[in-house]
Design a protein that fits this description.
The chain is α+β, with helices and mostly antiparallel strands. Helices cover 38% and strands 25% of the residues. The protein has a domain of 135 residues: Nuclear Transport Factor 2, Chain: A (Roll), CATH 3.10.450.50.
């Protein structure tokens, strides 16, 4: 009997040890599964939105290129229908620009400085036509006569809000019309940046 007890105790001890061992064995660490990456918070640009954005960018580039050519010619005192002007302007706007440049040249003046484009805002779009509003500041431009005297008009408003129509003509964007408004400040203008 004693032998039996010892076997029973030995078997019992072994079972107890196995139970304790199982209870004390750490469970494997929970595996972390990466959470799914959330979708972008900004929806992707649709095809029409992309086209509108590209058209605005091209129209603004044409306007800025045209202004650079106007500045160049006003500094020379010339009014020439250059490739730079005709590739970025047409119609009423081109006639307006050439008239302004002619007035400067016919007066025997030339400009020093450039017009500062304070901002450009999109204000309308349809296929092959963009509306832009530009804030222009010519207050740093001086006009010099042939004798080198400063003949810049005093007390004249030299800040403008320009409402521009830019058309795609033969695959190129050209400023074709303008409504110009002299302003004392750009408050409330969409182009004020």
């Amino acid at each position: 009997m004693a032998l039996r007890r010892r076997g029973f105790v030995s078997v019992g001890a072994a079972v107890a040890c196995c139970a304790l061992a199982a209870a004390c064995t750490p469970e494997p660490a929970p595996t972390t599964t990466p959470s799914p990456t959330p979708a972008a918070t900004t929806p992707s640009e649709s095809q029409i939105e992309r086209q509108i954005r590209l058209d605005y960018e091209a129209a603004e580039a044409a306007y800025r290129d045209n202004m650079a050519e106007q500045d160049r010619q006003s500094q020379l005192g010339t009014a020439v229908k250059t490739k730079e002007l005709t590739s970025t302007a047409s119609g009423r706007y081109l006639r307006f620009v050439l008239e302004v440049l002619s007035d400067i040249g016919d007066s025997g003046w030339r400009a020093e400085g450039v017009t500062n484009i304070r901002g450009v805002a999109s204000s309308g779009w349809r296929k092959d036509q963009v509306q832009l509003t530009a804030c222009e500041d010519s207050s740093a431009v001086k006009f010099i006569d042939k004798k080198g005297r400063d003949v810049t008009p005093k007390n004249a408003v030299r800040t403008y809000v320009q409402n521009l129509t830019v058309n795609r003509v033969g695959g190129r964007w050209k400023v074709s019309d303008v409504e110009s408004k002299p302003v004392r400040n750009y408050q409330g203008a969409p182009c004020a940046a």
